[in-house]
Structures are given as structure tokens and as C-alpha cells.
Amino acid sequence: MAIEWVACDMRTGRVICDIPLVSVGDIEQAIGAYSSTSAALPVVDAPDGWEQATMPGAATLVMLSDGVPMWGGFVTSRSRTDGDVVTLGLASIEAYFDRRFVGDDLFEGIAQTHIVRDLVNQYVGDSLTIRVEYSASEHFRNREYFDDEDKSVLSIISELSGLRDGVEWVISWEETESSGQVAYTPVLNVADRLGVDPMPGLAPAVSFDMPGPVTSITLVESFASGDGATDVLATSSADGDRRPQSNPMSSGDIVRPRFEERFTPSTSIRSLSVLNLHASETLARMRDGSVTLALSLNLGEAPPLGIDWILGDRVGFQIGGTDGTVPAFPGGLNGTARVIAWRMSGLDGSNPTITPTLTEVLA
Questions:
Q1: What is the C-alpha separation between 246 and 154, in angstroms, rounded?
Q2: Sheet holding 181-191, edge to edge
Q3: What is the pLDDT of residues 292-325, one digit of tens each?
Q4: What does pTM read for this prediction?
Q5: What Å distances lie between residue 170 and 78, 100, 157, CA to CA?
Q6: What are the residues facing 174 on neighbouring strands?
Q7: CA angle 143, 145, 151 (to 5 degrees)
Q8: Distance between CA atoms of 305 and 185, rounded to whole angstroms?
């Protein structure tokens, strides 16, 4: 697998130059979130135009895997000293959504994926070359936004994601053309549910196995704050002295004592039904705590990301067996789970790895 980096104009995606000497830290991507990392560029042998190619707020570094764009981050900071290495801060393009604010907008009975499409096209697409890939939604929402509420595009999409049956979204990248030049531009993928599940009775198309490409495994079960709760209340602050809040939601757990979670999905929610949806979704997610399975794989041996699997897919896994080859799982561990995030490490070394994070684990 050949990995290379190119610098692009953030607005248009046009390639400024290749930057083969750049060293980039771990890169990550998760459904409905942005990530950040750092990079180092030795400038003695850097290509001409490296200052333009690393200008904060103006340039994007895009990673190509065998020529296919996989991840992009815009330069948020650049640090220079009397040495010959420039240090860069990078944020994935999703972070830009938090730097754009919506105006006065009313949506009545509109499909939730269409709301996201319209907001991104209006408040992101006016300044950034981005395509929205969306699917029809079964869920229709009523939303009203006001300019003086200072709601960012990211905060609004995150609120819609936090609902029961809310939207899921993630950024991918594509090769395009701008003014006759090669460009790499982001694509916002939004749907009620991303990825694919296997047909009933069939195994997933992809499996991560140990022995095999899996080199290490971490299974974490947590009921810590933010991960587990038996009672949930969603609140807002939209009506001045009166605080709108959901009905109390309880899991009825008879094993655990009462663990309460109170949160504000949005300060502008006035509807009891919307707050109840947020509380219900959060309780469903937190009632049994969180279970995440992280599998590190050799990047060169792993089923290729973007071809064999993408974020949202349900995949299989087989860890060890009854022979006790993995002591923490004496009977082995196998089943299916959904990929919600991934991390690539060691990209500038001889043994790069990719670590998918899995949830909704089914034995």
C-alpha cells in the first residue's frame, strides 16, 4: 500500500504540490465527529511553494492510499523556529462545520437528511467545494433556527444525530477537477444509517481475525460517567425563566443502583416531544453501558478501507479459539459488530496499522 500526501487549496481542492517529506501523526475518523493531529515538515528539501501549501486556514493536506484520497485535514496552525522543521496542526474537514453559523431558517415536516443537505449547501458550500451525498429519510423533522442563537452547522447536525433514529454522517474524499487542474474535495455522506448489514442468515462480507491480520485487541466495557446510566433527563434553556425538560426516562434496571444522566442536547429546543426523543435515545445507548472493541490490524494485510468496508458497516471478527491462544478470552471471541471509527498509526514507518473501533457487538 503506497501512502502519499498532497497539499490542496482549501476552498477549491486544487492540488498545490506534493509534500513527500511530511510526517503526519495518527489520523482518525469517526461517524459524526471530527479529529485533529499534527504534522512535521522538514523545509530544507521541501517543495517550492511549501509556505502556501501549509498556510493556516487556507491549505488542506490530503492522504492518498494507492492514489485514492482517504483523509483530509486543513491546517489550523503552523509553528516555525530557528530549526529546519515546521510543525503543523491539522483538523479534519468536519471541524470547519463548527466555524460556520446558520441564519434564520424554518423546516416544517422536512426529511432529516434534507435538512442537513440544505444547511451544508447554504452555509458550508458557499465557501468550500463540497458535495453532499444523501439518501431519502424515513424521519421528518420540524426545526426553526435563528441567527441570534449562534448555532454552528456542526452543533445542529450533532443535535439531529443525537435523536432516536437521527441522522448519521461522515466525510469521504473524491478526486475532481477545478479549472482544469486535479483537485481533491470532500463529500458529506448523510443517511438514516450509514454502511451495510449482511443479509439475514449470511455472514458479513469482511471479517477481522486473530490469528490473521489482527495484531492486538482491546475490549472495553464501561459504566463510567457518559457511558452508562439508568435514569436520563434531557433539558433545554429556550424559554427564559422556565427550563424545558423531558419526561424522566428510566431503564428499570434491578441489578444496578440508580445512575442519573442529565444533558442539554440543544439550548433552542422548546418541544417536549423532541426532548423526549433525545432522552429516549440517550437511555437506549447508556442503559447497558458502553462496549467497544478495538482491533489493530497490519495496514498492508487488512481488508482495504473504502473498498471492502467503510464506516457504518457490520463486520465479523474471530479472536482466538477454545485452545486458549488468547488468554483473556479462553473460549475465543467471535461475532459481528458495527464499525463506528478507525485510526491509522505509524504512517511514516515500516509497519503502519489500522485500528477499527467496533460497537453493537453481537455474539
A1: 23
A2: 131-134, 181-191, 168-178
A3: 999 999 988 899 999 999 999 999 998 887 666 7
A4: 0.89
A5: 26, 17, 11
A6: 185
A7: 120
A8: 18
The domain limits of the chain are 3-92, 97-191, 207-222+290-362, 231-285
Fill in the amino acid letter for 71. Answer: W
Q: Write down how long the chain is.
A: 363
Whether the CB-CB separation of 145 and 160 falls below 8 Å is answered with: no
Backbone angles phi, psi at 117, to 5 degrees: -55, -50
Work out the percent of the chain whose per-residue pLDDT is above 70. 98
Confidence of residue 334 (pLDDT cuts 50, 70, 90): confident
Q: Within 10 A of 283 (CB to CB), how many other CB atoms are there?
A: 22
SS3 content of the chain, % helix, strand, coil (to 5): 15, 45, 40
Cβ–Cβ under 8 Å, residues 286 and 232: yes
DSSP 8-state symbol, 161: H
DSSP codes joined into one string, 49-104:
THHHHT-TTTEEEEEEETTEEEEEEEEEEEE--SSSEEEEEEEEGGGGGGG-B--S
8 A C-beta contact, residue 35 and residue 91: yes
Per-residue model confidence as pLDDT tens digits over 247-285: 999 999 999 999 999 998 887 788 899 899 999 989 998
